[in-house]
Structures are given as C-alpha cells and as structure tokens.
C-alpha cells in the first residue's frame, strides 16, 4: 500500500498576530503571501511558529537585547511631542504658526522649573515645530489637487 504524501501547503496554516512581536515577522495582505522578516526582509517558506522562531533565534538572537520593546529614540519622542502640540492647536482651531509660541512658552517654563537639568531644555529645543514645513507640504498638496481637478475638467470637456 502506498501512503499518500502529506502536503503542508494545503494545511491552511494561519499567521498569528502575536508572531509580529515575538519573532518580528509580518504577513503581507495578499493571496498566497508568505511571512517576511521585518529585520532582514527574508521570507520563510511555510507559516509555522517553529520556522519563524528558528529564523529569529539563529539570525537575530541579539535583537531584543540591543533594541528592547518600548524603547524610543530621542528623535521619536521629539516627533511625538510635536504631533501632540499640533493636535492641541488643531483641537482649538489655532494656526500651526502658533506652535513656535507654544515652544517658546515651554522653554520658559522648563528653565524656570528645572534650571539644573539642561537635558530637559535641550529636549524641548529639539522638538521639530517649524511653521513653514506643514505649510509647504499643504501648498504642494493643494497644487496637486488643483492639477488633478484641471485634468479631470479637461477630460470632461472633451467628452
């Protein structure tokens, strides 16, 4: 009697979301996709926890010691602070140009409260709150919309 060979591909293995954090793998959203390592961009042939774990432990064993989960760089913290300032300004319907005033006020408060801790002052100075940057991006986006609208109008006129 001949035994039928087992086909692993047809076993309908499901990718578990917890593998994102454990092994730094992600499954692209397309039919027939295979897991991709977020660190080295390599793939694993079969969606199985053991395969993902083996790749992670053999190739990236020092990753979580070098980059512990939840560890943010100073630049990421500064960007997050800038976005929070933008959120508050937008919530109160204030222009983004007021962000420089907010930054100046924060610097005055911090220097008054924490004169001996210069790291706090430099952290606030590093927050990227330039009024010109979002304005420039919005201007470029507005030009793109106007060009697209003109293109649609010219197509409608020709029909």
TrEMBL record:
PANTHER family: DUF4371 DOMAIN-CONTAINING PROTEIN, EPM2A-INTERACTING PROTEIN 1. This is SPIN-DOC-like zinc-finger domain-containing protein.
């Amino acid at each position: 009697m001949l035994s039928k060979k087992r086909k692993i591909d047809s076993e309908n293995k499901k990718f578990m979301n917890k593998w994102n954090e454990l092994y730094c793998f992600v499954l692209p959203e397309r039919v027939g996709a295979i897991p991709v390592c977020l660190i080295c961009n390599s793939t694993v042939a079969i969606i199985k926890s053991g395969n993902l774990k083996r790749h992670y432990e053999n190739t990236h064993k020092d990753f979580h010691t070098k980059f512990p989960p939840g560890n943010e760089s100073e630049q990421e913290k500064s960007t997050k602070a800038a976005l929070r300032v933008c959120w508050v300004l937008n919530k109160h319907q204030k222009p983004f140009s007021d962000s420089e005033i907010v930054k100046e006020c924060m610097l005055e408060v911090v220097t008054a409260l924490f004169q001996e801790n210069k790291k706090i002052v430099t952290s606030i100075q590093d927050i990227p709150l330039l009024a010109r940057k979002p304005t420039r991006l919005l201007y470029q986006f507005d030009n793109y919309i106007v060009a697209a609208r003109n293109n649609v109008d010219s197509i409608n006129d020709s029909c």
